[in-house]
């Protein structure tokens, strides 16, 4: 089973549409009627939905680091810097992540700061998906 993604409100719609065209399970904050929610609530909602959060908002880096230091469980955050990762790169790498990192007996490989080859994305997680 592939990884389901939850898109932060800062993610361009082109990324969402590109992933859907490639068969990736994605839901945006806007579609979930959560626009304007504070970042911690967005991450909590992603966890409730069992989805990995994708964001281009570097505020989530601080949140991820705090959670990792406290060893607080969360499904995961994938971050891509706006200045470095183009829309096309994000779509390509997110498709790879969503389709290759799959659930195995309801456990995903434990990752912290995993970055695919030639990618501008970083993954933060401390939980089972």
Fold and architecture overview:
The protein has 129 residues and is of the alpha/beta class. It has a single domain, classed as Rossmann fold. Helix content is 35%, strand content 16%. A six-stranded mixed sheet has the order 2-1-3-4-6-5, with helices on both faces. Helix 1 (13-21) packs across helix 4. It starts with a strand and ends in a 5-residue tail after the last strand. The relative contact order is 0.21. The model is unreliable at 103-119 (pLDDT under 50).
Task: Report the major sheet.
Answer: 6 strands, mixed
Mean pLDDT comes to: 80
Q: Which percent band covers the strand fraction?
A: 15-25%
Question: Would you tell me which CATH topology applies?
Answer: Rossmann fold
Quantity of strands, as a count = 6
List keywords for this structure.
single chain; 129 residues; Rossmann fold; six-stranded mixed sheet; 4 helices; 6 strands
At a glance:
Helix content is 35%, strand content 16%.
Question: Which helices and strands appear, and what pairs or packs with what?
Answer:
Blueprint: E1 5-7, H1 13-21, E2 26-28, H2 39-48, E3 52-55, H3 59-70, E4 77-80, H4 87-100, E5 112-114, E6 121-124
Parallel strand pairs: 1-2, 1-3, 3-4
Antiparallel strand pairs: 4-6, 5-6
């Amino acid at each position: 089973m592939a990884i389901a993604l939850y898109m932060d409100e800062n993610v361009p719609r082109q990324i969402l549409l590109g992933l859907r065209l490639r068969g990736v399970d994605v839901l945006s904050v806007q579609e979930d009627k959560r626009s304007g929610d504070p970042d911690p609530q967005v991450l909590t909602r992603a966890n409730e939905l069992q989805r990995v959060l994708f964001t281009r908002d570097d505020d989530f880096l601080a949140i991820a680091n705090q959670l990792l230091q406290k060893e607080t469980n969360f499904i995961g955050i994938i971050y891509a810097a706006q200045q470095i990762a183009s829309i096309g790169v994000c779509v390509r790498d997110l498709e790879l992540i969503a389709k290759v990192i799959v659930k195995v007996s309801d456990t995903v490989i434990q990752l912290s700061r995993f970055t695919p080859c030639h990618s501008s994305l970083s993954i933060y997680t401390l939980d089972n998906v």
